[in-house]
Design brief:
By secondary structure, this protein is mainly alpha-helical. It folds into two domains: about 150 residues, no CATH class; about 130 residues, no CATH class. The chain is built from 15 helices and four strands. Strands 1-2-4-3 form a four-stranded mixed beta sheet. α7 packs across α8, α8 packs across α13 and α13 packs across α15. The longest helix is centred in the first third of the chain and has 18 residues. InterPro entries: GldB-like. This is Gliding motility protein GldB.
Length: about 325
């Protein structure tokens, strides 16, 4: 059974591990350029045809008449202006310059994408960052980062709102790029495979944004991350005792990996638990692997199977 009693104990007395990813990386003097598409879109002095010619892909499948209505919609203009007022593009450019430099350190073939910010009027709150490595584009929906208590977010689930703050922009960008670097084997559907897949993504988060706290890397609250760390052994024991590790039951993904208000252990502890504990556990397995295999490169690690990573991690958390 998952123990609620230990929910907020422990971590303060644990010794901090050395952060092997927090290394100095040479950063270019010139900042990454950022283009605010919505600034031009909502500018009354920019004709719609001129805008479409400059950004032919931005309209997508939206009909011309609807596209024009959106351009002239006072509510959408108001929302965009609020989002823009909260977004420091100069700071974002600085952060992206360092992020891209770190990614290039580990992946020398990485090329800086063209960066665009825009406002979807909160329609893309579930996925506010889109990275397309083939086209070399990075799109950031600034309406998805106006602050979790923002009035425009009424009706959005709390577990999404917790990562809709300005401090979540960089980790979500890093995460989008990390997902593009991790191969997903559709033939490997055991729970341990899924956990290690997400664990690989989280290890890239460690490498790409080592200076940020763990809760931001995982898109949860600080309180929820504290719960995870306090209950790490309890979570693991629960998975082992219920023979979940090598189960191919698809419901385990919905219970322990998919976004939600909490994880579904089917105990009285559920509502006190952190969501996505399967991702957290996969992350700790991968961290344990690197603790024991410090000479392994990220590329070698990403090419390894979940089974090999798990076995070589010798993961067994203790209080």
């Amino acid at each position: 059974m998952l123990a609620v009693a230990v929910a907020f104990a422990i971590t303060s007395c644990q010794k901090e591990k050395e952060n092997i990813w927090d290394i100095k990386v040479e950063t270019p003097a010139e900042k990454v350029p950022i283009t605010d598409i919505s600034k031009e879109f909502f500018d009354a002095n920019v004709p719609i045809e001129q805008f479409k010619e400059k950004y032919p892909w931005f309209q997508g499948s939206v009909k011309d008449e609807d596209f024009i209505k959106r351009k002239n919609n006072p509510e959408e203009i108001k929302l965009y202006k609020e989002a823009a007022s909260k977004t420091d593009l100069n700071k974002l450019a600085t952060d992206l310059t360092e992020l891209f430099a770190r990614i290039r350190h580990y992946f020398p073939n990485f090329k800086d994408p063209k960066v665009y910010t825009f406002s979807s009027s909160t329609q893309m709150y579930e996925e506010p960052v889109i990275y397309d490595p083939q086209q070399g584009y990075l799109f950031i929906d600034i309406s998805g980062f106006m602050g979790e208590k923002n009035e425009y977010y009424k009706g959005i689930e709390e577990y999404f709102k917790v990562s809709m703050n300005q401090e979540n922009i960089l980790p979500k960008i890093s995460e989008a790029i990390a997902f593009s670097a991790v191969s997903y084997d559709r033939n490997s559907q055991k729970f341990i495979d899924l956990m290690v897949f997400y664990g690989k993504v989280m290890m890239l988060q460690d490498a790409f944004i080592p200076q940020l706290p763990d809760h931001l890397k995982m898109n949860i609250s600080e309180k929820q991350m504290t719960w995870n760390k306090a209950n790490e052994q309890n979570i693991w024991d629960y998975f082992v005792e219920n023979d979940y590790l090598f189960s191919a039951d698809p419901r385990l993904s919905e219970r322990f990996i998919a976004p939600g208000p909490f994880s579904k252990f089917y105990t009285e502890a559920d509502k006190e638990s952190s969501p996505q504990v399967g991702i957290f556990t996969g992350w700790q397995i991968c961290r344990n692997f690197f603790d024991k295999n410090k000479e392994t490169s990220l590329q070698e690690f990403l090419n390894m199977s979940a089974g090999d990573i798990f076995n070589q991690s010798a993961y067994k958390p203790t209080l």
